[in-house]
Design a protein that fits this description.
The protein has 490 residues and is mostly helical. It contains 24 helices and 2 strands. It folds into 2 domains: 214 residues, no CATH class; 252 residues, no CATH class. It is globular and about 70 Å long.
């Protein structure tokens, strides 16, 4: 009974807070201003810690606004706690991905992928191939996160060896990864969007292909054109790269077994944490079998004793490691940060959740969404309001799930009143909420992918063509009333 009364008092406390749209926007405008100046001062290094503190400062501004309007500090902290709790699994996945990168380097898995990839791919078709490969993997696994953490890392390495921009490659990886993530029935967001809108999963997926397929075709055409005009002459010599990789690692096609096992496990709906952990353990065993000299060197011993092997593998899992090479262009490729390398990203996610939690607690997120809903009254205006709301929540709440759930709840009745089928809403939520999350540095998705791929959001933003094109395509279809399904009464 005491829990129920606590919940009820919390709801009452929230109901008493009535913000104007300008009051709700004060923390957002303050955050944008502070982040802009911080990036101006620190540049790319702003993600090393200063942006995280700016997010806390934005949360402090939101807390002041809420306090002045009667919000209780305890309620704000409780919402922050709920937000951080919701990120427990992504944080653990990030730690596993860091460990995976370390063990997959030490075992030679990533160098092997790059070694064979260099012999198959060339700069002209490379970017388009990245889109297709990541699309297939993401449809199979239902996860853009897993796609980045496995083939994405390898493709970034191949790009460096081919002399192709890693920013372009990251954009291609994310374009393909999010295409598959949107259409896979195993994707969490693909299940969440129809649940919020009030339609079923496969109706949602079929209806989503109307906007998603043209968008990915345009994306592929753009990357093909970029590939045809790439000039990588003189930047790298693939033969030298292949020789250097072969000199540092024992290359074997048997090492492909580990990533294949991980992908199969995820396709079979094994929880990602379990699949990644098994990938780490299998890579550790592979390192002992295929790269014993490297394990001994990283472990710092004169012979491969049990203690030295243990230290070498644990260092690869937990901290920075560097495999020596005479080829300077491979220095970055032959290094990994382990779990330690992911701490900056985790720090960013936690601080973003603090800001989003307080914004939710003071009613600012709901007020912004309501204002967008009231802004337009036409059918196109309703679609535009939905897209704007999803983008605003990705910016302010820093979480793609909130960018789907909040607008989904807010707009479901409005679509019904307009006589529009619920799949219109579910498709728009995915076209704007799911895919744009990766374009925002302090969003959980932007922080994750930039951390995993090692490419800042500001660098890959322009090349994540599928991600920023999707909202425009859905608005284009709405503006010209193309395939806008009406609600049918039985």
């Amino acid at each position: 009974m005491s829990n129920s009364s606590n919940d009820s008092s919390e709801v009452k406390a929230k109901e008493k807070i009535e913000l104007t749209i300008w009051q709700a926007l004060i923390p957002v405008l303050a955050l944008i201003g502070m982040l802009a100046y911080n990036v101006f001062v620190y540049g790319d290094s702003s993600l090393e810690g200063s942006n995280q503190f700016i997010l806390l400062m934005g949360a402090a501004v939101a807390a002041v606004v809420g306090t002045l309007k009667g919000a209780k500090f305890e309620v704000m902290i409780e919402d922050v706690a709920k937000n951080i709790k919701a990120t427990a699994e992504p944080i653990l996945i990030l730690l596993m991905v860091g460990a995976l990168a370390g063990t997959w380097l030490l075992s030679g898995i990533i160098p092997t992928m790059i070694y064979y990839g260099l012999q198959i791919l060339n700069p002209t078709i490379f970017l388009a191939a990245c889109v297709i490969i990541c699309s297939v993997i993401s449809v199979a696994t239902g996860s853009s996160w897993t796609t980045s953490a496995t083939v994405g890392i390898a493709l970034i390495g191949i790009a460096g060896a081919l002399g192709v921009s890693v920013a372009m490659t990251a954009g291609a990886v994310l374009s393909g990864g999010y295409f598959g993530d949107k259409l896979s029935p195993m994707s969490d967001t693909t299940n969440l969007a129809p649940a919020m809108a009030g339609t079923d999963l496969f109706t949602h997926i079929r209806y989503m292909t109307i906007t998603t397929v043209p968008t990915i075709i345009i994306t592929l055409i753009v990357f093909i054109i970029i590939g045809l005009n790439l000039d990588t002459t003189g930047q790298t010599n693939p033969e030298e790269i292949l020789t250097a990789i072969d000199a540092s690692f024992n290359i074997s096609p048997w090492l492909f077994v580990v990533p294949i096992v991980v992908i199969v496990l995820i396709v079979k709906k094994t929880p990602p944490l379990i699949a990644l952990l098994l990938g780490i353990l299998l890579a550790a065993l592979s390192a002992l079998f295929f790269q014993p000299d490297l394990v001994q060197m990283i472990g710092g011993g004169d012979a491969l004793t049990l203690e030295v092997a243990y230290r070498g593998i644990m260092d690869a899992i937990t901290i920075d490691i560097q495999v020596p090479t005479d080829n300077e262009s491979l220095s970055d490729l032959f290094s990994a940060g382990g779990m330690y390398g992911m701490l900056g990203t985790i720090w960013l996610i936690i601080c973003a959740m603090v800001f989003g939690g307080i914004m939710d607690a003071i009613g600012a997120l709901e007020r912004i969404s309501q204002a967008l809903l009231n802004l337009f009254h036409s059918t196109f205006g309703l679609f535009f309001s939905t897209v704007s709301s999803c983008l605003a929540l990705n910016l302010t709440a820093s979480d793609q799930y909130l960018a789907i759930v909040v607008p989904g709840k807010m707009f479901a009745k409005a679509y019904e009143k307009k006589g529009l089928a619920p799949e219109n809403l579910s498709r728009t939520l995915e076209d704007s909420g799911t895919v744009t999350s990766v374009l925002i540095p302090w969003n959980t998705c932007g922080a994750y992918h930039s951390g995993v791929l090692g490419v800042p959001v500001v660098d890959y933003f322009f090349y994540a063509i599928f991600n920023y094109l999707s909202p425009f395509v859905t608005l284009f279809f709405a503006a010209f009333n193309i395939k806008i399904r009406q609600l049918t009464k039985k």
